Amino acid sequence: MSKFRNHFTGILIISILIIQSSCQKASPSQSLSETINGVTVKIDYHSPSVKGRDVWGSLVPYNEVWRTGANEATTFEVDQLVLVNGKKLPAGKYALFTIPGENNWEVIFNQNWDQWGKYDYDKAKDQLRIKVSSQTGQTFTEQMTFEITKDGTITFKWEALSLQFEVKPAH
Asked: Are strands 92-99 and 75-78 parallel, antiparallel or unpaired?
């Protein structure tokens, strides 16, 4: 009986480990934070992968609001008033949406940050919108990423596309 129990327990543990490893999220959650001249900037997002798909204009349509990631809305948080590409953004937590275009994108900071995807997106709650240019063909990035540098450059990369905007203290 004891031998059977040990074998059963061993098989059960191995089965759980196999199931757990195969249930990795397709779009894992990511979090990054940086202090820029005394301002803390934090971005939380879920990072989808290309997986051989056509992304721009297909998986992610042009000229439509996009959650800028997967699952819950991507969030962007600052602990004091900042300038984003020279425009004021008050301290707070925001949903970070984008409207992809073939050459130019709109980056949207929306007050309703606690939402799944873009289903509850309300343009009336936009705190700030900025326009940025996208660059293509530089390098291929399989899994969507954000980067924050100490000088305040926020970079978004996915597939063969990247875009940037600047965050500076408003003081």
From this structure: antiparallel
Greatest C-alpha distance within the chain: 73
Domain that holds residue 113: 26-169
Whether 71 maps to a domain, the answer reads yes
Number of domains into which the chain is organized = 1
Tell me the H-state helices in the chain.
Answer: 2-22
pTM of the model: 0.84
Per-residue pLDDT of 93-108, as tens digits, reads: 999 999 999 999 999 9
CB-count burial class (<10 Å; 0-12, 13-18, 19+) for 112 = middle
DSSP bridge pairs for 89 = 82
Over range 122-147, report the average pLDDT.
95
